[in-house]
């Protein structure tokens, strides 16, 4: 189903406690203690994948780099919660396990996609939309407003709406009637380097990690991979790793109406020519301030 008036791609779960007096919706699924309704909206048919299996339902917003959603579910069935640590990509993922009665939610470890949850109770919402109407009807969170005014950002999962939290990106979240139970699936060990080890082996390891990451992302990009080329060290390093790996590689950069000498756009043109890769310009600003603010 899809809620009218929602323009962008999104995922939303409505969870109603089985023992509550709330009437379940006709298209809800019985998942453990919940009646669950999935709202997956994808106006362009490119961002959302939904899989229905006899005992599993999964919905993905975004992209998995190294496997399909079906492959991710196979790993979940094989290794349980440990599957989350194996996923790479830019995604928000929800899984309804009808056999065990679990509702699971997670995002990629960097948090390029977000999931938001309303407080535990007889009715819980999990959504990729921070401005879900069921969230915005809640009282404004004074702590969140103060944090934005003082610090310019929202820390520790705070949102503008009382009780609504942004789920931690590096954790697997099990939604239960008492609360959302969360467990880390990925941590970064900060172990000091061996003092006697020279820098060259570290550099070699980093290069191999980057090559592996680029290769996995390239496989997931399909027939026409694109690279945002700014002219900085990161993008030119990626271009050097991608060069020769795909015949249809195209680079692009954001520009103003006039490309000035010494600008990032000019550097990007020069780099693309150096590597013999087609390059496109995307006009970043057309004089409409309101539209730019709206898009960002």
Q: Which key features would you list for this structure?
A:
single chain; 296 residues; disordered N terminus
What does this structure look like?
- The chain is 26% helix and 27% strand.
- It has helices at residues 69-79, 133-136, 142-151, 199-220, 233-242, 264-275, 289-295, and strands spanning 10-17, 29-31, 34-41, 48-52, 56-64, 89-97, 102-107, 116-117, 123-127, 165-166, 171-175, 180-184, 226-228, 250-255, 279-283.
- It has a six-stranded antiparallel beta sheet with strand order 2-3-1-9-8-10, with no helix packed on it. Strands 4-5-6-7-11-12 form a six-stranded antiparallel beta sheet.
Radius of gyration over all CA atoms, rounded: 22 Å
* DSSP E strands, number: 15
Q: Find the structural class using helix and strand composition.
A: alpha+beta
Strand content: 25-35%
Order of helices and strands: EEEEEHEEEEHHEEEHEHEHEH
Gap from first CA to last CA: 27 Å
Count of discrete alpha- or pi-helical segments spanning 4 or more residues = 7
Give the % helix: 25-40%
- What is the general shape? globular
The major pleated sheet works out as: 6 strands, antiparallel
Adjacency order of strands in the biggest sheet: 2-3-1-9-8-10
Which segments are poorly predicted (pLDDT under 50) over 5 or more consecutive residues? Answer: 1-6
Mean pLDDT: 89
């Amino acid at each position: 189903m899809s809620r009218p008036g929602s323009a962008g791609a999104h995922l939303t779960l409505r969870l109603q406690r089985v023992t509550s007096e709330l009437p379940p919706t006709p298209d809800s699924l019985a998942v453990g203690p919940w009646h669950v309704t999935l709202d997956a909206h994808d106006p362009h048919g490119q961002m959302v994948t939904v899989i229905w299996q006899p005992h599993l339902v999964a919905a993905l917003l975004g992209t998995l780099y190294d496997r399909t959603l079906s492959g991710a579910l196979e790993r979940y069935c094989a290794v349980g919660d440990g599957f989350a640590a194996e996923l790479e990509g830019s995604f928000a993922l929800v899984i309804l396990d009808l056999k065990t009665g679990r509702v699971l939610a997670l995002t990629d470890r960097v948090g390029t996609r977000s999931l938001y949850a309303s407080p535990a109770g007889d009715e819980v919402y999990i959504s990729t939309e921070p401005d879900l109407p069921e969230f915005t009807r809640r009282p404004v969170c004074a702590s969140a407003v103060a944090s934005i005014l003082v610090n310019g950002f929202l820390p520790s999962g705070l949102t503008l709406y009382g009780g609504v939290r942004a789920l931690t990106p590096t954790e697997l979240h099990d939604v239960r009637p008492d609360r959302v139970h969360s467990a880390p699936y990925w941590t970064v060990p900060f172990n000091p380097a061996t003092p006697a080890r020279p820098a060259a082996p570290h550099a070699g390891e980093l290069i191999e990690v980057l090559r592996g990451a680029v290769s996995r992302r390239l496989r997931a990009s399909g027939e026409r991979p694109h690279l945002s080329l700014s002219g900085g060290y990161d993008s030119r390093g990626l271009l050097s790793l991608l060069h020769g790996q795909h015949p249809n590689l195209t680079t692009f950069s954001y520009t103003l109406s006039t490309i000035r000498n010494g600008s990032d756009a000019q550097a990007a043109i020069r780099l693309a020519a150096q590597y013999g890769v087609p390059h496109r310009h995307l006009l970043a600003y057309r004089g409409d301030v309101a539209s730019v603010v709206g898009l960002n």
